[in-house]
Amino acid sequence: MIEASRVEAVAPAHADSPQTPAATRAAGLARLDAFAPRAGRIYAADRNTDYGPDADDSVSHLSPYLRHRLVLEPEAIAAALSRHSVNAAEKFVQEVVWRGYFKGWLEQRPSVWSDYRRRVRADLARLDADSALDARYRAAVEGRTGIACFDAWATELAATGYLHNHARMWTASIWLFTLGLPWSLGADWFYRHLLDGDPASNTLSWRWVAGLHTRGKTYLARADNIARFTNGRFQPTPDSLASDAPALDEPAPPPAAMPAAPAPLPSDGAPVGLLLTEEDGHAESLGLDGATVAGVATLSAAEHRSPLAVSAAVVGFTGDAVADAAARAAAHWNVTAETLPAGVQWGDALAAWAQRLGVTRIVTAELPQGPAREALDTAQPTLDTAGLALYRIRRPYDAAIWPHATAGFFKVKKRIPKLLSELSLA
Ligand SMILES: Cc1cc2nc3c(=O)[nH]c(=O)nc-3n(C[C@H](O)[C@H](O)[C@H](O)COP(=O)(O)OP(=O)(O)OC[C@H]3O[C@@H](n4cnc5c(N)ncnc54)[C@H](O)[C@@H]3O)c2cc1C
């Protein structure tokens, strides 16, 4: 049994903290608008420097919005390309596409996600059995390792729900190779705190640092690199950090297999219930304008990110994001929106809601691997018994990227010009 009280004793971010951004599409679009002028050469030149939580930097901070699809990847790419040439915006576009690449990679190998979920439980149980490992783990997540940069990033993560990409790479590397902690627990720690916490980007980035994604190739945090790219804020001594990063080893994941395209929603006009989750906050662009949407419901699985307690900021941000999505969808289709109770079986909640609405069809954006997908898969037998048909909509953006996410990012990167033209973005 996992100890529910294993929670970090560092300043937590609260959902209403002034540092927590508003979880609305309007706030995301405002952020995109403010960032777009810097999405070209400024971003490319300066994106690797982490100036600290209270300083301006050159990255977009769009990730919580993109992760919940309050802002869509094509919108972010289009905003960058409306201000900059394809060449100047190349780096930003590539970074946005990394997100879709990781999602597609995991969709094609769902067992990597289920193995991660099992591994987190097993490694948490190891902490109970190994007091030295437990002490190292607690010192790390509470920011008490004595490694100043690591401790500052641990505190920043808990206080803001965000870390700069380079800080994520250094933190993960120090966790693995200097502190000798299990990668799965590092991924779980990030996932419990990041407002942009994403099953694919987070799990696969940790695996990448550990040498499990690009097999055998690890990421080593070096003292001089940290000093340079924190603008001198941190100056670790070289001997305070591991000097090598031996790759972890694991059996290779099964071969990639692209999930079949979901069955289309029949166009016979029968009424549908529209289910919104934290995976997609912009139902208005799902292509449902020809459908008869009879009502909207929301469900969130944010609390199931981990066997441990998920930060209040994550639960708050996710709840606000689905509420914002529901309010917009309800206004768009002129129907009412219901927040279905958290903590119940999704199958029971959905069947009761569909009955209230008088529909036998539920439609939702396709849920990628993650806790919401697990909850919906578990609900499927109950939906079947209730005679409810579930339709999932795959966005053209995902359909364009996922099939190419079979190996490393390079294969997808090479296709970016084609992708931009297929999606009418350039
Ligand atoms: C160990 C580790 C864990 C991570 N966990 C997550 C996570 O849970 N969720 C998440 O969204 N990203 C994760 N990332 C990727 C990346 O760090 C963040 O997306 C990025 O820092 C978000 O800040 P930004 O929006 O200012 O990024 P920008 O630099 O402005 O990039 C624009 C957008 O591109 C995407 N992006 C940028 N870099 C990456 C990347 N390396 N991989 C995937 N997408 C990227 C994001 O959607 C981001 O919002 C992780 C990286 C590492 C090394």
UniProtKB/TrEMBL annotation:
SUPFAM superfamilies, A to Z: Cryptochrome/photolyase FAD-binding domain
A single MF term (Gene Ontology): FAD binding
Low complexity bias: start-end ranges: 241-250
Region (Disordered): 1-22, 235-262
Binding residues for FAD: 43, 92, 95-102, 196-198
Signal sequence, renumbered to the chain: none
Residue ranges occupied by any Cryptochrome/DNA photolyase FAD-binding domain in the UniProt entry: 92-223
Protein name: Deoxyribodipyrimidine photo-lyase
Organism: Rhodothalassium salexigens DSM 2132
